[in-house]
Structure formats: C-alpha cells, structure tokens
Amino acid sequence: MKTKSALIADVSHLLIAVGDKFDLEMTGAEDGDAERDFVVAHCPARLEATVRDLPSSAMHLLAVIAEGPVGVVGLASRSGQLKGTVSKYVQRLVEADLVTRTAVPGNRKEVQLALTGDGELVVEAHRRLHDEMDQGIHDFLKAYGNAELQVVATVLRDLLAATKDGVRITRH
Fold first, then answer.
1. Domains of the chain by range and CATH?
2. Looking at the predicted structure, is the pLDDT value of residue 25 above 70?
3. Average of per-residue pLDDT values in the chain
4. b vs e for 31-69, b when ≥16 Cβ sit within 10 Å of the residue's Cβ?
5. Where does residue 70 rank: exposed (0-12), middle (13-18), buried (19+ CB within 10 A)?
6. H helices of the chain, where?
7. Which of 47, 54, 69, 111 could join 101 via S-S bond, C-beta 3.0 to 4.6 A?
8. 113 has which bridge partners?
9. Percent of all residues in the chain with a pLDDT value above 70, rounded to a whole number
10. Is the dihedral of CA 66, 67, 70, 75 positive or negative?
C-alpha cells in the first residue's frame, strides 16, 4: 500500500498527464488561459506574443530540451511524441527564437537543439507555473484519505489509457 504522500504525488502526476490529453474545448481555453497568463506574467513583455502563440505541446518540448543536448529524434523519444510532430514544433520554436539548431560535427543529418536566452526565460516561467500548480494540488489532496486517493488515481489511469487508445474526450 502506498503512503498518502506517494498517492498524492501519483494523483498529481496523473492529473497533469490527463490534462495534456484534453481538447482545447475541455480546458476552457476559449474563455482565457490562466496558465498562459501566468507564464506571460513571468516573462519579459517582449515575449508575450510568442508565449501566447506557442502551443502547449511546444512549451513542454522546451522543458525537455532544457534537460540537456538532444536532437529531434531524441526529443521525440523523450517526449513520447511522433518525430513529425516534434519537427513541426521545433520549427516553430526556432522561428520564435526560443531554440537554436546546431549541426553535429561529422553527421550531416543530425542537429542538436539548445535553448536560446529567451527559451530559458520561457522554460523557467513554465517550470515555476508547474511548481505552483503541484503545490496547490498537493495542498488540496491532503484533505482526502488513502482509499479516496487510490480511487482517483485509478480513474485517472483509466482515463489516460482511454486517451492513448484513441478515445476523444470533449465537452458537450
């Protein structure tokens, strides 16, 4: 049996994973985006348009690039996304001047990706957002018992599995 702390961490992780799978319709993005507003508020004003135009998946790729040197294939593998999708987002990140591509010496095909100074600013603001969200989720979930947290974790795992099996979840 997991400890309460481990269950809270598990539910927090699952909430984020499931949240990433929902359509924009489910997130209420058409009514404003509090997460995006947070990142914008924690970046220089000159980056507002860039941050607002950046798809969430691309922002998450920035965080993976920040972990260390990586090429497009490695980025796709680390992020669990298709190489074509990652290539498309990398192009947008390069055009936004958040990422640079550098040729790998002795390899004509491979490039190495790195954050620019602006990319580092966006990653830090995004990391701060997730730190605050994690703390808020943790504080909220402390009120529940282990049995209740286990049920929530099971439901979220099932929901995540359903999205991986191609089930689309939309608001009606």
1. 33-116 (1.10.10.10)
2. no
3. 86
4. eebebbebbbebbeeebeebbeebebebbbbbbbbbeee
5. buried
6. 4-19, 24-27, 34-41, 48-53, 56-66, 72-79, 83-95, 117-141, 146-164
7. 111
8. 70, 101
9. 88
10. negative
Question: What is the pTM (predicted TM-score) of this model?
Answer: 0.75
Helix, strand, or coil here: 110?
strand
**Beta-strand pair 107-115/99-104:** antiparallel
**Per residue in 80-107, pLDDT tens?**
889 999 999 999 999 999 999 998 888 8
Token pair belonging to 42: 């924690």
30 close to 78: Cβ distance less than 8 angstroms = no
Mean pLDDT of 46-59: 92
Determine contact, residues 115/94, Cβ cutoff 8 Å.
Answer: no
d(CA 53, CA 84): 20
